Amino acid sequence: MTISTTEKIGQAVIVFLLLLLCVSVIYPFLYMLAISLNDGADAAKGGVYLWPRQFTWINYEIVLGNEVIRHSYLITIARTIVGTFLGLLVTLAAAFGLSYRMLPLRKAILTYVLITMLFNGGLVPYYIQLYNLGLVNTFWVYIIPNMFSVWNMFVMLKFIQGIPDAVVESAELDGANPVRILFQIIVPLSKPMLAALGLFTAVFHWNDWFAGAFYVTDQSLIPVQTFLQQMLNASDLSVIFGSNTNQEALARGAQAKNVTLMSIKMAVVMVSALPILCVYPFLQKYFVKGVLIGSVKG
C-alpha cells in the first residue's frame, strides 16, 4: 500500500506531538529524581535538571529513617489495602443486587443513586455527618465514606448485565443462592473489570491528602500524602525533625551534610509516588478489557 506525502507528513506530526507529550510527562519526574539524589546545598545553586551533579543517598536516609514518615507510610498502605478491598466488595454487592431486573423499585433506587453522584450536600454538612458518626479523627474516616462509589457501581452493573443470563439461570437451577452466584460466577468472570477499578480505587486512596488534612488532627493518623502537603507548606526542616533535643541534634547533623528542605521534599515525593507507579505495568492490560467492556456492554 502506497502512502502519500500528505499522510507521511501527518504521521510525522503525530509522532512528534506524542514524543513532546511523553517528554512533558517524564521530565518533571526525572527532575525530581535528580534533585532528590543530589546534595541539597549544591542543588540550590541551580543547574541540576536530569542527572545529579553531586550524588548522595542522604535525603532518602533521612526520609526513610524518620519515624513520622514511616508511620504515615504505614497508614497509607493500610488505608489503600483495606479501602480498596472493602470498596470493591461493597460496590460489587450493590451492583449485583441492582442487576436483577425484577428487583422491586429498581428504577427508583438507580435514580436515587444517580442523584447522589450529581449533587452533594456540601463540605460542612458532610463534616457534621462524619462527626456525628464518630469517624472524625479515626482511621475509619478514610475507609467507610469511600466504601461505595456510584461511578464504579454503574460500570460494574453494565458489566454484570453483559454476562449471559443463561449462566446465572443455570446456577439458580442447580440450587445456588445469590451469594454463591456472586462469588463463584460473577467474580471470576469480572476479574478484568475488578482489576481495573481496583487500581483506580487504590490510586485514589494512595494519593488522597484531603481527608487527612481536614478530618484528622492526630498526627499519628495522617497518611503520607497529607504529610507531604504539610511539608510543601513548611518553611524549614522542623516538620521533619520536630523540636525535641534528639531530633534537633539530628537536624543539625543533617544540615551539616548540606541537606535542604527542597531536597527532602523531592525525596518524599519520590518515596510516595514510586510504589503506586510500579503497580501500573502489571494491571495495564486490564484497562481497556475491563473498564471499556463494562462501560459499553448493556
UniProtKB/TrEMBL annotation:
It is a multi-pass membrane protein. The chain crosses the membrane at residues 12-34, 73-97, 109-128, 140-160, 181-206, 262-283. InterPro entries: MetI-like, MetI-like_sf. Belongs to the binding-protein-dependent transport system permease family. It is found in: Cell membrane. Pfam families: BPD_transp_1. Residues 69-272 form the ABC transmembrane type-1 domain. Keywords: Cell membrane, Membrane, Transmembrane, Transmembrane helix, Transport. This is ABC superfamily ATP binding cassette transporter, membrane protein. It comes from Thermobacillus xylanilyticus.
